[in-house]
């Protein structure tokens, strides 16, 4: 069995400024660095076979902090990037998502990705990663929106349970939260999601 340890990147400057951040990037804040540091002790006893990151700076920096000079092989993968929000990149969140609502189909109409395209890209990358291992703990640092799409796909009760607990899916995957997915013989099982340690 393979355990995938998914971590969303730490808080960034665009998170604080409430700007849409998909394929565009911004650095971690001091709070984001502290959030990543909170996972050093949580994961230090876990035998991590390999670590993967989105190619976005905020994810690579988060991964570097978490690993804290551990001798673990690191890989950057473009397929782990966030949904591409097209012309909405960098815009204020309340302008793009009034009342907190998101575009259900995606952002292909504004030169971005549909949610289906983004999910397929992400899933293909995850499949390529798990195909390399038999039994392992694998750390993957990626992004909030794409994680929510992936979790909703592998666990049909994810969104409804999230809404019942939080009132919204939007607050479900906080910065530097840890989620665990088990993979066994072609099947994914969402074990836990969105746990924070700061």
TrEMBL record:
One of its GO terms (biological process) is regulation of pentose-phosphate shunt. GO terms for cellular component: cytosol. One of its GO terms (molecular function) is fructose-2,6-bisphosphate 2-phosphatase activity. The keyword Hydrolase applies. Pfam families: His_Phos_1. Substrate binds at residues 8-15, 58. The active site is at residues 9, 82. It comes from the Bacteria. This is Histidine phosphatase family protein. It comes from Faecalitalea cylindroides.
């Amino acid at each position: 069995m393979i355990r995938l340890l998914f971590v969303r990147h730490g808080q960034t400057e665009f998170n604080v400024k409430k700007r849409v951040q998909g394929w565009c990037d911004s650095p971690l804040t001091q709070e984001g660095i502290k959030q990543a540091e909170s996972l050093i002790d949580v994961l230090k006893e876990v035998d991590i076979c390999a670590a993967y990151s989105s190619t976005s700076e905020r994810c690579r920096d988060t991964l570097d902090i978490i690993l804290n000079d551990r001798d673990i092989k690191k890989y950057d993968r473009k397929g782990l990037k966030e949904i591409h929000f097209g012309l909405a990149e960098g815009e204020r969140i309340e302008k793009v998502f009034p009342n907190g609502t998101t575009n259900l189909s995606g952002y292909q109409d504004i030169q971005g990705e549909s949610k289906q395209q983004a999910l397929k890209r992400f899933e293909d990358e995850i499949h390529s990663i798990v195909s390399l291992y038999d039994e392992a703990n694998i750390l993957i640092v990626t992004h909030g929106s794409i994680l929510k799409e992936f979790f909703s796909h592998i666990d049909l009760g994810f969104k409804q349970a999230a809404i019942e607990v939080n009132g919204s899916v939007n607050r479900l995957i906080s910065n530097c939260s840890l989620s665990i997915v088990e993979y066994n013989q072609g099947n994914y099982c969402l074990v836990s999601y969105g746990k924070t340690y700061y």
